[in-house]
Amino acid sequence: MKLISWNIDSLNAALTSESARALMTQAVLQNLIDLKPDVLAIQETKLSATGPTKKHEEIIEQMFPEYDCVWTSSKEPARKGYAGTMFLIHRSLQPVVTYPSIDAPGTMDHEGRIITLEFPEFYITQVYTPNAGDGLKRLADRQIWDIKYADYLASLDKGKPVLATGDFNVAHQEIDLANPAGNRRSAGFTDEERFGFTQLLNRGFTDTFRYLHGNIEGVYTWWAQRVKTSKVNNSGWRIDYWLVSNRIADKVQKSEMIHSGDRQDHTPILLEIDF
């Protein structure tokens, strides 16, 4: 089974814009199409509360004619055009789709952050974890989210093995970012967020990239857009993951990044697993 996850940073821009950045995004999308995944998870769609427009749907159908599309978006009382997630699922698969709430603080449960697919023998779930924000204004809420999300994954794991992916907005270890010393209190590398991710793994989950590649350094999934040379200099962070239940870790065949050329921000991540 071939699975891909990507924080796309605005699906509308990817589908309808003709800017230089949009063209780079479209080239990455075409690469993903060519890879023919069974499931494609997309985060940070930034669509309206009503989801894809008719134009969006037409373009998605043209690009992914053999896939069903399911989505959830940020809605009131949360911010409009914010966060949001989507799955494209090959039509040979017919999972049960749910859009769980996890009793998260503030408006987090209204921001379209989680979609779960239930298959007969396993779950695939994706997440767009809330960022702690500028000045760590949302860090306290983020810590609660981490606990609630770990509880949710553990509840799924009691029934069937779980494959969990997405933008977790945390570099877990020092080797997961280029400059750990300079980012001790940066969102995504605070002790609190790293501890939350450790606690999640301790509930019975495996970071598949580390499982296959050990302590390899210099491999990242995100490079800051605001720093023009971040990707050229490989000054990145690994904040996107494929996690699996410990008991199926030995079935993972590949867990790696998909090259996204000169495009900064997130790069897609690939998981291949043989059930």
- Would you tell me the structural class of the helices and strands? alpha+beta
Spatial order of strands in the largest sheet: 3-4-2-1-14-12
Fraction of helical residues: 25-40%
Element-level helix/strand string: EHHEHEEEEEHEHEHEEEEE
Total E-strand runs:
14
Q: What distance lies between the first and last C-alpha atoms, to the nearest angstrom?
A: 8 Å
Mean pLDDT: 97
Q: Which regions contain 5 or more consecutive residues with pLDDT less than 50?
A: none
Output the number of helix runs: 6
Topology:
Elements: E1 2-7, H1 11-16, H2 20-35, E2 39-43, H3 54-63, E3 67-72, E4 85-90, E5 96-98, E6 114-118, E7 123-128, H4 139-157, E8 162-167, H5 191-202, E9 205-207, H6 208-213, E10 222-223, E11 240-245, E12 252-257, E13 265-266, E14 269-273
Parallel strand pairs: 1-2, 7-8
Antiparallel strand pairs: 1-14, 2-4, 3-4, 5-6, 6-7, 8-11, 9-11, 10-13, 12-14
Helix pairs in contact: 4-5
Characterise this structure.
The structure is a single chain. The chain is globular and about 45 Å long. The protein is an alpha+beta fold and about 280 residues long. The model has no long low-confidence stretch (mean pLDDT about 95). About 25% of the residues lie in helices and about 25% in strands. The longest helix has 19 residues, at about 140-155.
